[in-house]
Each structure stands twice: as C-alpha cells, then as structure tokens.
Give the backbone structure.
Amino acid sequence: MKKHNSYALTLIGLHLLLAVYSLSGFFSKNAAAQPFLSWQYIAFYCGMMAILVLYAVGWQQVIKRLPLTLAFANKAVTVVWGILWGALFFHESITPGKLIGAAVIVAGVVLFVKADGEEKRHE
C-alpha cells in the first residue's frame, strides 16, 4: 500500500510540476512584449528561467521514481494548462476544438496511466 501511495503522490507532484512548467510560456510571452533589457523584460525573463530550473530539478526527481515513458506521456497535459493560462492571462478564447483536443490529450494520458497500472499489477 505504501508503494501505491508513493506512486500516486509522485504522479500528483508531476502534474503540479507540469502546471508550474507551463507557466514558463506566460513569462516568456510577457518578456517578448517588453523593451529589450528593460526591468520588466529582465523580471519576466528571470521568472521564466527560475521556472525552468525548478522544472529541471523536479523532472529529475520524477524520473527517478516513475518510468520515463509514463512521465513523458503525462507531459502532454501541459497543453491543457497552456489553454487555461492563455484564457486567464491573455484573454484567448477557449474554442470547442481546443476543448476536444484537451479532452483527447487527457483521455490518452489516463489510458496510458491505467494500462501502466494494470501492467504493474500483473508483474
């Protein structure tokens, strides 16, 4: 049971890490909109770099605990976070096509995780 809880916590941590990682796009998009080397540009750029460093360290911890194929399959969820951040921060519209695409991505990740769980149970 303890191993199952650790596995679930690692997956939750991975998704939180991916949510934070997806914010790097917010920072880079805002940095690009600022005059080069202005304090706003530097602040957004530093924010982006901080997120990427945090992600790199977190990713290494995740792949120590999960199979790489599983961790990498879950990375597709950043598209869903990107849609959410685009709507919240940049007032981009969420179209039916985006929702369908996000649903397909989430369904694929869920199927992959379930299949991996079934495979582990039979070992």
